[in-house]
Amino acid sequence: MTKKTSLKNAKQVDQKAGEYFEQCDENKKPYAISGLAMALGLSRKELLTRQHEGAIGKAIKRALAQCELSAEERLLNGKNVSGVIFSLKSNWGWTDKPEPEIREKESQPLKIELSLKPSSVDYSETEVGHE
């Protein structure tokens, strides 16, 4: 279990996240949300919850975006990508195919109104050929 963090500001989040990313790069390890959370002294759940907290939340979102970018690059450059695909789907809402968005108004019956106006053309003197 992760102990309660003493994150005081966004600069501290940026610094700790940067140290985590450097350590991953040095050890040739992928960036992971759980690893980022541990580096910040948070649980994974706390990390995802705190991303909505003002300036600290914005710094957390930047770090999470770096993790997502890393996963996307591994997807494009990797040999065994099934784990990366799972991570992208689970953590960032990626899907295999676009899903159409259905809006409430679109699900209502479609009402079409037509206004027919009489034609101004006089067809009474038009010759129609009969054989």
From TrEMBL:
InterPro entries: GP3_package (IPR032066). Pfam families: GP3_package (PF16677). It comes from the Bacteria. This is Uncharacterized protein. The lineage of its organism: Bacteria, Pseudomonadati, Thermodesulfobacteriota, Desulfarculia, Desulfarculales.
